[in-house]
Design a protein that fits this description.
Low-confidence stretches: 1-24
EC number: 7.6.2.9
Structural class: alpha+beta
Largest sheet: 6 strands, mixed
Strand content: 25-35%
Bound molecules: adenosine-5'-triphosphate, magnesium ion
Helix content: 10-25%
Mean pLDDT: 88
InterPro entries: AAA+_ATPase, ABC_SmlMolc_Importer, ABC_transporter-like_ATP-bd, ABC_transporter-like_CS, Mo/tungstate-bd_C_term_dom, P-loop_NTPase, Transp-assoc_OB_typ2
GO molecular function, one term: ATP binding
Strand order of the largest sheet: 6-7-8-3-9-10
Pfam families: ABC_tran, TOBE_2
CATH topology of the largest domain: Rossmann fold
Number of domains: 2
Protein name: ABC-type quaternary amine transporter
Number of helices: 8
């Protein structure tokens, strides 16, 4: 399970460039975007508003409509309906180059015959930026990305990660109000990905950039994003901060996709303004934060493995037998087979390694009510 980064945003250092979109407050707004291919709905009424300096990620499994949404914003794909407004200007019917957005894709698409410097200078030359200004801006941008020493090399003389940083510089250099990135680290190995994630986040914060990023990697989305739009079947299931998605998932899909939640079947026994009590099919009583769902309704209670704890017998919502114990660095993954009641499968926990139980041990499990989400079972109760 990805470690959740809940740190507050560090103070950004003085921006080298003025934060793009500052003053407009809302660099990007998308309303009811729709795109179908033949009978297939790729994107279905997607709406969102993105603030200046925000790092927003489209997260979803393959085919969920992430790239199609990004391509419509970029202008490479025409929506069937809906509108796109950038910095207060409706760009829905404008050509990509007239929208003034920056792009970074999975393939670096650098010009092989040009040096790093020339690659990065290219967008400024296209825009007729005067020479002195061009030199200053290319120099600054390469400096920020740690590429100054490689300015004279050609792309084939660089590593994959360095090439991707050049591609990033090329998108940054003309200060677009919004930068769009589609799986820019997809082709790189894990270690390099981690490094460049940190790099991208640092540059984004330093320059106050507004970024829309596409990935199917939950951990990457959690590390990078101010807000994440979780996409499924062409729709946004939930658009929220990583913390909200994790702690207040609005659908079972979000609970599962972001944290591989346990789903415990049961029935709502009591609902008060303070709490929802769920009688689990395994027999125990689980207390959740107050949520919708009528008394007697069939539900699934979702709890992340990292939010379950062992407790003294009698205090928990379930007792059972430890079936597996797997050490993962400073954490231990444990599965427990609940005793009694219906067999609803094992419960998965993640504990600090120091709290590991032993195989075959009888344990009791508890969770804080705030960490328990309750979802109605469709067609039930
Ligand atoms: N040009 C096209 N013609 C027909 N169908 C398309 C086209 N482009 C995308 N689709 C379909 O639209 C849906 C969404 O595709 P999209 O590329 O947006 O998904 P994605 O979320 O980016 O997936 P991935 O993670 O695999 O890149 C898919 O079902 C896909 O098959
Ligand atoms: Mg895609």
């Amino acid at each position: 399970m990805p470690e959740l980064h809940l740190k507050s945003q560090p103070q950004s250092s003085p921006a080298v460039f003025p934060p793009p979109g500052s003053g407009t407050g809302k660099p990007l707004s998308v309303t009811d975007l729709r795109k179908t291919y033949g009978g297939v709905t790729a994107v279905d009424t997607v709406s969102m508003e993105i603030a200046g300096g925000e790092f927003v990620t489209f997260l979803g499994s393959s085919g969920s409509g992430k790239t199609t949404t990004l391509m419509m914003i970029a202008g490479f794909c025409e929506p069937d309906s809906g509108s796109i407004v950038v910095g207060g200007r409706d760009v829905t019917r404008l050509a990509p180059q007239k929208r003034g957005l920056g792009f970074v894709f999975q393939q670096y698409l650098l010009f092989p015959h040009m040096t790093v410097w020339e690659n990065v200078a290219f967008p400024l030359q296209l825009r007729g930026v005067p020479k002195a200004e061009l030199r200053r801006r290319v120099g600054e941008t390469l400096e920020i990305a740690g590429l100054s020493a490689m300015a004279r090399r050609r792309p084939r003389e660089l590593s994959g990660g360095q090439q991707q940083r050049v591609a990033l510089c090329r998108a940054l250099v003309y200060r677009p109000p919004v930068i769009l990135m589609d799986e820019p680290l997809g082709a790189l190995d894990k270690k390099l990905r981690d490094q460049l994630q940190t790099e991208i986040k640092r540059i984004q914060q330093e320059l106050g950039l507004t970024v829309i990023y596409v990935t199917h990697d939950q951990e990457e989305a959690l590390v990078l994003s101010d807000r994440i739009a979780v996409m499924r079947d062409g729709r946004i299931d939930q658009f929220d901060t990583p913390r909200e998605l994790f702690e207040r998932p609005r659908t079972p899909f979000v609970a599962d996709f972001l944290g591989a939640a346990n789903f415990l079947p049961g029935t709502v026994q009591q609902r008060t303004p303070e709490q929802t009590l769920v009688r689990l099919d395994t027999g125990g009583l689980l207390t959740a934060r107050p949520q919708a769902g009528a008394e007697g309704a069939k539900v699934r209670a979702a709890v992340q493995p990292g939010r379950l704890r062992l407790c003294t017998p009698g205090d928990g919502f379930c007792t059972g037998t430890v079936e597996t114990v797997t050490y993962v660095g400073t954490l231990v993954r444990v599965t427990v087979r609940p005793a009694g009641g219906a067999d609803t499968g094992v419960v998965r926990l993640e504990l600090p390694a120091g709290e590991a139980p032993v195989l075959g041990e009888q344990v009791s499990l508890t969770a804080h009510p705030d960490d328990v989400s309750v979802f109605a079972v469709e067609g039930g109760g």
